[in-house]
Amino acid sequence: MMDVAVIGVGQTRYGMFPEKSLKELFHEAALAALADVDKGLDPRDVDEAFVGTLSTGGAQLGNFAPMMMEACGMVGAGARHIENACASSGFALRDAVSAIASGRAKVAVAAGIEKMSDLPRERNRLWLGISGDVEWERLAGTNFAGIYAMMARRHMHEFGTKKEHITMAAVKNRNNAVANPKAQFRAPLTLEQGMAAPNLASPLKFSDACGITDGASMAILCRAEMARDFTDQPVLVIGSGAGSDYVAIHDRPSMTMLKGAFEAGKEAYTTAGITSDDIDFAEVHDCFAIAELLAYEDLGFCDRGKSGPYIESGATLRDGARPVNNSGGLIAKGHPIGSTGTGQVYEVVNQLRGRADTQERQLSGARYGLTHNVGGSGAAVAVHIFKAVE
Amino acid sequence: MTSYISLPTYSSNIDERLRMIAGKCNQCGTLAYPQRPVCIKCGQNKFERVPLSGEGKIYTFSVVNGGGAPSEFDEEQTMTGDVYCGIVELEEGPRVMVRFTDINPEQLKIGMKVRAVVRRLYDQEGFLRYGAKFTQVA
Amino acid sequence: MVGIISYGASLPALRLPATAYKEAWGACGARGMVQKAFCSYDEDAVTLGIDAARSALGRLGNNQPAIGALFFGVTAPPFDEKPSAATLATALFDYKNIRVTEISGSPQAGMQAINSAIEYCQSNNGRSALAVVADAPTAPPDATFEHALGAAGAAFVIGPDGPVAEFLKCFSVTHETFGSRFRRRGEEMISDLELRTRDNLISIEEVGKLTATSDVPKRMALGVDAGLTRGVGRLLGNSEAIVDKIWTEIGDAGAAAAPCALVATLDIMTANETVLAVGVGAGATAVAFRAGGGLSENRRKGRKFSELIKCGRVANYIDYLKHKRLLSSRTGGKG
Predict the structure, then answer these.
(1) Domain membership flag for residue A183
(2) How confident is the prediction along chain C (335 residues), in pLDDT tens digits per residue?
(3) Into how many domains does chain A fold?
(4) Is residue A335 part of a domain?
(5) Residue A159 placed within a domain
(6) DSSP secondary structure letter of residue A209
(7) The complex's ipTM?
(8) Residues of B with Cβ-Cβ distance to A198 under 8 angstroms
(9) Which of A38, B4, B101, C274 fits a disulfide with B133 by CB distance 3.0 to 4.6 angstroms?
């Protein structure tokens, strides 16, 4: 197996860009990723491409990946669309890593995009609920907020977790995003404001959730042995894990953990040869605030059931022992579904290279960074571990 | 607007929706409701059809803001507001995500007794779809 | 003798007090009505029918007979074509060898369904049938006759012998009407030209001519409005008759009105008393029963109609319009 390195990352600003076309958005991310390859890369040298998206404006497009590659001048690479709901580009990354590790590709691209802003309200609700067990969950009238809310209520019931603990994740992430120029929501939030926000899906409030976001991102990877040809600051992908679970949460023995995330984390730690204690910082999938608390437990950052006290301790703040979602996470940086996984890579790679866009956000002395990308309510999860090269 | 759940798909589990018919694994006796092709416990794929009582207790729930439910319920939530849904642990064991109806939101809590009734689920493609919802046991 | 083996009823979730009309329109066109029962957004004649049938079948516990035929009486089924009776059968039975018949066209449909179930049992010796009646008629909200429109369901298991009530006789009359309560094909809402014709009185009078030749029951079940209720005993040949008063509490339940009145009457009858249930509308279908020894046991196993009236959440007029889709630009009263 070949070692794999990231040599360039790019991301559009996350936000609402109804006036930008899908191709423009993707092109912008690709252009940024190519520019990030310090010593340059001919787009035609890309061997394989994996593009994550859920669907385009709620409609499926055939041959989506070749269309995106065409939009950014990478015609010719073996390109395919990867779909695992909100974990689409986390899985695109995993496949790009495999393509290189197997020796088949020298240079591969993992990318993601979603355009969510240009739909009528009803059409948005048509497709936002398609990533669960549609026959039973969707027809019970719930959306994903409701599904995570049901998990949150179980967590509170089983472990005595307080609603404040859950909202603390949203507050932290919103405040982290203030300094992130790429983030969608950059207004700070206080715990009092978060607790008093209107009901979204009880016990979750509107401020405990991500929004509707447009955005695209790309990571360019190559064989680690070639990485120095492209940049003096490659970042190694040292761990990759994936897992899946029953799609409907009612079929899972426990609703207070994502088994798929636990398994993905275990595989990622094993392949990286490190443990959760070694992780200096992480970007986790906080589509709803409770999801960040579940991630702490599933990834071994704290004991099972103890994520409430863990977040309360401040350990995951920007200046804490292990910052989580320094970018603002999905809640504040934004969650353009297909782009989220590679968007997390953008953040982690920049942090490991010491290239955070503002000095205020730059974490110091970080060696190991982790990304945790969840599809739906945990049906598919991809976890990756990155390491800075000294 | 077209539906994400086709009519043939809906009709294929009409007995589950209207009469709470579960699958009972021929090998280990585990109940599958909703029914599934492979037993969740032992992996076998032969089931006997058995009716469930339709009685159970709330395992977890949420009040979804009337504006956020899937598009099938667009008109309904405009007309009637918040959507009450959750997971019921049925008397016979299986858990299932359900819609609550005729329920006092202030009394919703984990452990509350509920029972199945047939109601309209939604009206789409010119077709009404009926199915079990759960209501407070008086 | 053929008769009722079990019975049950269902009322929808919501209640609207008559005062809501006084507040909204200055007066309530349903004089004498205290409140009515109406369907929440997810209820209709089919869900009421299923609920009523489950109540009737449930009272039999493990002694349910195999049902050979299901008759569904309803003026407001969700489909003109595609039998809702088949939905009932799917929801109620795990077998498919069942005949379903949907009877519609006038508020008589409910009593016609009961009578058809009786005739099925009479002509198929030893077999049992299920009569389900449910209705939720709709009219334009600015029509005075809309004010009375309610919703309800009832069901009767009919068998070769009737421990709950024995069938005595059926009387039918037909009276073509011109302008009162009609609905053209494809229309969702009933119309009524509000003429001064006395169609329902004429129909009841005609039934009275037929019943005059037999023992006139002491109890009468019609489910009709307060005005008509007052004169019914005399018209049917017994001015001392005890007439049901469910209309004042549930409103006009269309095809389910007389069957629900029959349920409410069975709830309070003693063995050997007789009742005449009359469904009225473009004629009348009247069925006479004598209460049997099994009545009191059967009714102990379910909830009484008076209890069903009491449960239900009181709504306001705006919620009423929303639940009935009368404020909807998409469905505009459909369904």
Answers:
(1) no
(2) 899 999 999 999 999 999 999 999 999 999 999 999 999 999 999 999 999 999 999 999 999 999 999 999 999 999 999 999 999 999 999 999 999 999 999 999 999 999 999 999 999 999 999 999 999 999 999 999 999 999 999 999 999 999 999 999 999 999 999 999 999 999 999 999 989 889 999 999 999 999 887 788 999 999 999 999 998 999 998 889 999 999 999 999 999 999 999 999 999 999 999 999 999 999 999 999 999 999 999 999 999 999 999 999 999 999 999 999 999 988 766 75
(3) 1
(4) yes
(5) no
(6) B
(7) 0.96
(8) 65
(9) B101
User: What domain range is A103 assigned to?
Assistant: 4-120+211-388
* CA B93 from centre of chain: 14
| A262, containing H or E segment | helix A259-272
Cα A145 off chain centre by: 17
CA A143 – CA B69 distance, rounded (Å):
5
What whole-number distance in Å separates Cα of residue C110 and Cα of residue C286?
11
Closest CA to A37 of A6, A11, A64: A6
Q: Is the CB of B130 less than 8 angstroms away from the CB of C91?
A: yes
Which amino acid makes up residue A234? P
CATH of the domain at A251: 3.40.47.10
Residue A163 lies in a domain: no
Smallest Cβ–Cβ distance between B62 and the set A133, A201, A251 belongs to A201
Q: Using an 8 Å Cβ cutoff, are B11 and B130 in contact?
A: no
| Contact residues for C90 (Cβ-Cβ < 8 A; gap 6+) | B14, B15, B18, B19
Identify all chain B residues contacting C41, using CB atoms and an 8 Å cutoff: 76, 79-80, 120
Tokens of A19: 């006036």
Alpha carbons A228 and C172: distance in angstroms, whole number: 97
Full set of structural domains in chain C with CATH: 3-162+296-323 (3.40.47.10), 166-291 (3.40.47.10)
Residue B33 touches partner A, C-beta closer than 8 Å:
no
Q: Name the token pair of A245.
A: 């679970």
Does B1 reach chain C within 8 Å, measured CB to CB? Answer: no
Find, in chain B, the residue whose alpha carbon is nearest to that of A152. Answer: B60
Helix (H, G, I), strand (E, B) or coil at C86: helix
